[in-house]
Amino acid sequence: MIEEETLKSYLKAGESVKKAKKWIERLVKKDVKLKTICEEVESLIVRSGCKPAFPCNICINEIAAHYTPPANSNRLIPDNSLVKIDLGAHSNGFIADTAITVNVSSEEDELITAVNEALANVERELEPNIRVSKISSIIERTIKYYGFKPIVNLAGHQLKQYKLHTGFIIPNVRSIRNMFTRLTPGNAYAIEPFATTKKGKGEVIGRRGGNIYRLVSKRPPKMGFARRIFLEIQRKYKTLPFTTRWLTDLRKKSHFQRAFNHLVEKGYISEYPCMIEVNNQPVAQAEHTFVILEKEVITIT
Question: Would you tell me how many other CB atoms lie within 10 Å of the CB of residue 257?
Fold first, then answer.
C-alpha cells in the first residue's frame, strides 16, 4: 500500500511538472538560450511549491539524455532540431519525472509521433502487476511500426523517495532478463520510450560534459573547502542529481573549481554521462510517471 501523504506528495510533484510542461513549447524556439529555458522551467517548478528533482535536461538531436547547460553557457537552440526537455519535481522527496520532444523545423516530426504513441499505448494497457516485458514489447512494437529504432540501452526506471533511479529498469525492447518482473502496487515508475531513425544504431554511448552530478559518498572529506561544498550539496539535494549551475554562492569562490574537481576525482561525486546516439542520428523521447495502486494506475504527469 502507498500512504496517503506519500500519494499527495507524488500528485503535488506531478501537478508541478504538468504546469511547467505547458510552457515548454512556448519557450523552445530557434536562437533561444538553452540556459534560459532550463532556468525558466526550474523556476516554474519552484513557484508551484515544489523543488526540481534534477537539473532540467535539454538534449538536442543526437544527444539523447543527461545534458544541462553550465552557468556560463551561451549555447542557442539551432534550427532543424529535435529538442528533448526532461524535467522533474519533487515534494518531500517524492518525484514526478516527465519529458517531451519539441520539433524546431525538423523533418523528423514522425519520430516524435512514434515515441508519443508508444507511451500512449503503454498507458492504455497499464494495470497493477503488469509485466515489464509487456511494456517493453508495446514500446518496441510501436516504434518499429513507424519504421524507427528503439534505443536499446536507455530505459524507464523505478522511483523512490529522494532516489531518481532505483530498483529495476523498464527497457524499450523486450528482454528475457525481466520476463517475470512486474510493476507492483505501492510504487512509482517512470516509463520513457526513446527512438531514433533507420540510420541510427539504436544505441547510445556516454561521454563526459553533461554537467549533471550526484553525491555517491555518505561521508564528506575531513577538511577544507571541498568539505564545505559536499555538505552544502548534501543539505540541499541529498542523493538527487544537481548541477554546478545551481551552486551560485559557492561558485563565487576562486578555488571552487579545484575543490569540486577534487570531489569528483576522489569519488565523492559522480558525473552522469551525456548519452549520445552512436551514429549521431536524432533521438526523440516521451516520458510519464505512474503510481501503481492496488486496483488502479495513476498517471501523475
Answer: 11
Catalytic site residues? 86, 97, 157, 165, 192, 287
Distances (CA, A) of 279 to 24, 84, 110: 28, 18, 19
Q: Does domain 213-271 have CATH number 3.40.220.10?
A: no
Q: Give the C-alpha separation, 296 to 301, whole Å.
A: 16
Domain with CATH 1.10.10.10 in the chain: 213-271
Supply 221's cell numbers: 572529506
pLDDT at 179: 73
Give the HSE-up count for residue 102: Cα atoms under 13 Å, Cβ half-sphere.
Answer: 21
The residue written with cell numbers 494506475 in the block is: 297
**What pLDDT is stored for residue 180 in this prediction?**
82
Blockwise average pLDDT, block size 10, the chain, 301 residues: 94 98 95 98 98 98 98 97 98 98 96 98 98 97 98 97 95 83 97 98 97 96 94 96 97 95 97 98 98 97 97
106: number of Cβ within 10 Å? 19
Prediction pTM value = 0.95
Determine the Cα–Cα distance for residues 244 and 63; give it in Å rounded to an integer.
20
The grid coordinates of residue 83 equal 529538442
Using DSSP bridges, classify how beta strands 274-277 and 51-52 pair: parallel, antiparallel or unpaired. Answer: unpaired
May I ask the CATH class of domain 4-206+281-299?
alpha beta
In the chain, where does the domain assigned CATH 3.90.230.10 lie? 4-206+281-299
Q: What is the pLDDT of residue 177?
A: 73
Q: By the 8 A CB rule, do 284 and 108 touch?
A: yes
Burial, 289: exposed, middle or buried (Cβ in 10 Å; 0-12, 13-18, 19+)? buried
Please tell me the predicted confidence (pLDDT) of residue 178: 72
